[in-house]
């Protein structure tokens, strides 16, 4: 009986985490599914069976490099070029990983999947979401990652299957993901009490954009942000902690500073 009660309680925790995670992924569904369809169609018209986008979306799960892989598969065999290309395109995930070391630690087999399935969108949700106290954090982050993975996988597979039958104008569709990241940034801005890190990120990105150009600024900008925020981490955390304490004291005092 005790084991049965434990299983029932565990199932309830999992269902509660799924219900909490799903609404956060709905905006991702809109972008992932249509871009996944586009990718599947692209693979289809390039002469590949739907098996290719299906397997690539479930094993690689990196949209940008999957599009590039189409040309790599059609070109001469060059594994070093493929490795360098993948490293350059997805180098930002190195910085994401550093930020998520503590958050993804201690969840058993789920930690391995969270690391594998971490994409821009899953990182943004899992890093910024305020998870309710009665929801298991490990299962919440797992379902965010799994749902986003499923959206991309299902869109890519369907695009590969029905690519020859679907014809629509995809011009401007790539802006969906840009718009989504703008919304995520604005939500994070509204949650922050201290905007120092966000303003530094914007300023350094703009400087690198001017210095290196639109095609080459991302990696220098990430390196600059990482180095500078690491250097000023302690004073920045102290400032944030101080402003939080002042806010709490103000609230305790009935709104009087």
From TrEMBL:
Question: InterPro entries from the entry?
Answer: Brnchd-chn_aa_trnsp_permease
Secretion signal, residue range per the UniProt entry: none
Q: Where in the cell is it found?
A: Cell membrane
Q: Which residues form a coiled coil?
A: none
UniProt key word Methyltransferase: no
Q: Which residues cross the membrane?
A: 21-42, 54-75, 139-165, 202-229
Q: Which domain of life is it from?
A: Bacteria
The membrane topology noted for this protein in its Swiss-Prot or TrEMBL record is: Multi-pass membrane protein
Q: Which UniProt keywords apply?
A: Cell membrane, Membrane, Transmembrane, Transmembrane helix, Transport
Q: Which GO terms describe its cellular component?
A: plasma membrane
One GO BP annotation of this record: L-valine transmembrane transport
The record's similarity note reads: Belongs to the AzlC family.
What's the protein name?
Answer: AzlC family ABC transporter permease
Q: What is the lineage of its organism?
A: Bacteria, Bacillati, Bacillota, Clostridia, Lachnospirales
């Amino acid at each position: 009986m005790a084991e049965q009660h434990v299983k029932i309680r565990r199932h309830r925790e999992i269902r509660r985490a799924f219900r909490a995670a799903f609404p956060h992924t709905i905006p991702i569904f809109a972008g992932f599914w249509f871009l996944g369809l586009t990718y599947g169609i692209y693979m289809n018209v390039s002469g590949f069976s739907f098996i290719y986008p299906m397997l690539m979306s479930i094993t690689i799960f990196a949209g940008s490099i999957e599009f590039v892989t189409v040309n790599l598969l059609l070109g001469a065999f060059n594994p070093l070029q493929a490795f360098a290309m993948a490293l350059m395109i997805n180098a930002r995930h190195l910085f994401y990983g550093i930020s998520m070391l503590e958050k993804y630690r201690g969840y058993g087999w789920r930690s391995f999947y969270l690391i594998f399935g971490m994409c821009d969108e899953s990182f943004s949700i899992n890093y910024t979401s305020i998870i309710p106290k009665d929801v298991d954090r490990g299962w919440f982050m797992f379902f965010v990652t799994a749902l986003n993975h499923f959206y991309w996988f299902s869109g890519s597979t369907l695009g590969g299957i029905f690519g020859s039958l679907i014809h629509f104008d995809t011009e401007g569709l790539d802006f969906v993901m840009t718009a989504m990241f703008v919304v995520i940034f604005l939500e994070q801005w509204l949650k922050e009490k201290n905007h120092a890190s966000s303003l530094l990120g914007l300023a350094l990105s703009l400087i690198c954009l001017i210095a290196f150009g639109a095609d080459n600024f991302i990696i220098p900008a990430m390196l600059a942000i990482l180095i500078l925020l690491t250097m000023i981490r302690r004073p920045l955390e102290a400032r944030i902690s101080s402003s939080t304490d002042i806010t709490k004291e103000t609230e305790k005092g009935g709104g009087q500073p």
